[in-house]
Amino acid sequence: MYDSLTRAKFEILSTDEVTRIHDASLDRLQTQEIVGGTRNGIPGSISPGPMAGASSPVTLAGTVAQANAEFLSGLVISQAASPGAPVIYACWARHLDQKTANVSMGTPEFALLRVCQAQVGTMAHQCVKEVLLQTRR
Questions:
Q1: Is 37 part of a structural domain of the chain?
Q2: How far from 72 is each of 5, 15, 123, CA to CA, in Å?
Q3: For a Cys-Cys bond, which of 12, 14, 27, 58 suits 53, CB 3.0-4.6 Å?
Q4: pLDDT (mean) for 44-66
Q5: Is 53 helix (H, G, I), strand (E, B) or coil?
Q6: pLDDT tens digits for 18-50?
Q7: Which residue range(s) make up the domain with 108?
Q8: Does the residue 27 lie in any domain?
Q9: At a CB cut-off of 8 Å and minimum separation 6, what does 1 contact?
């Protein structure tokens, strides 16, 4: 761990990357990473990775909704550990080609998932900002 003097000398942005690998829960290590990182001032990057047609609904809307729910669970843990800690909204949602059973990342659906996640992330940022402003009043 860096002490405050070291942090002042070296302003390096590093993140604590937590990628969700299961759609129902965060495991102990992932939870410890979120809590440890936020308590030490490291921005957390919560990155759900649902796979449409495999670990999430086959529809794009269902996959986006599940990814957002998974992100929010990490956000709640982060904020419970250190209120106001910075968190990066990230997502690695993709879809499973039902014919070949391969993950497809160069398809129109993949691009749509990226666009949808960007929009949801922007809306989530606005909502969280409003909540933080209201709690500080």
A1: yes
A2: 33, 18, 13
A3: 58
A4: 88
A5: coil
A6: 555 555 567 788 888 889 888 988 888 888 888
A7: 13-136
A8: yes
A9: 40
